[in-house]
Design brief:
By secondary structure, the protein is α/β, with parallel strands linked by helices. It has a single domain, classed as Rossmann fold. It has ten helices and four strands. It has a four-stranded parallel beta sheet, with helices on both faces. The two termini are 20 Å apart.
Length: 200
């Protein structure tokens, strides 16, 4: 199971290691064809703004600037259980946290390009695949909604489900980008059903 950019890693693992894959659950996953289906100018502006914001956090973290401005590297901490929020904030203000996010963003195109090495006919193993997609424009990376990419993201979710033979798309109608926080029961239920299915 992979969420957001983690969905790319899960998809690639399934393609490269079919014998080790029993099922795939993609939670608001990046679609490998995002570069091809979103205008380059719009996507480039979004990615550059996001990388710049993360870079500034990475540079300012050693001096405590993100902490001073109350800009942790994670946007979901207020939604976490109260008892773990202090630790989460402490981790999210560290230079390593910003550096990890920046490096991940910087390597995103390289990650997507790994699929290109598989050729045009990318074949998933014959296993259950579920695509969990949200409906509320909330908790997405900064600038995704403001740059008008949200509509494209929703369409890419539908396209992702259609591109994988036999995949089932489930719409989380009460969720933003983090379905696992908004509707954890839905995610757990999806996992349980898949485990039951593959054990038959």
């Amino acid at each position: 199971m992979g969420h957001s950019l983690g969905g790319i890693f899960v998809q690639l693992f399934a393609v490269e290691h079919p014998d080790e894959t029993a099922g795939v659950i993609l939670v608001e996953s990046v679609n490998k064809d995002m570069d091809k289906k979103i205008p380059k100018e719009k996507l480039g502006r979004f990615e550059n703004d996001l990388k710049f914001l993360t870079f500034m956090g990475k540079m300012g973290a050693p001096m405590g600037i993100p902490r001073l401005l109350r800009m942790p590297s994670s946007i979901i901490i207020p939604r976490l259980p109260k008892d773990i929020q202090p630790v989460a904030y402490s981790l999210a203000y560290r230079t390593k946290s910003y550096a990890a996010i920046y490096d991940e963003l910087d390597a995103m195109h390289e990650s997507e390009a790994e699929f290109e090495k598989q050729g045009t006919a990318i074949k998933f193993p014959d296993v259950p695949v579920v695509v969990l997609s949200a409906t509320i424009p909330r908790d997405y990376p900064p600038f995704m909604v403001s740059t008008g990419l949200y509509g494209s993201w929703k369409q890419l979710q539908t396209d992702l489900a259609k591109s994988i033979l036999g995949a089932q798309q489930i719409i989380a109608d009460k969720s933003g980008h983090f379905i696992q926080l908004d509707q954890p029961g839905l995610v757990i239920d999806t996992i349980d059903k898949m485990v039951e299915q593959v054990r038959r």
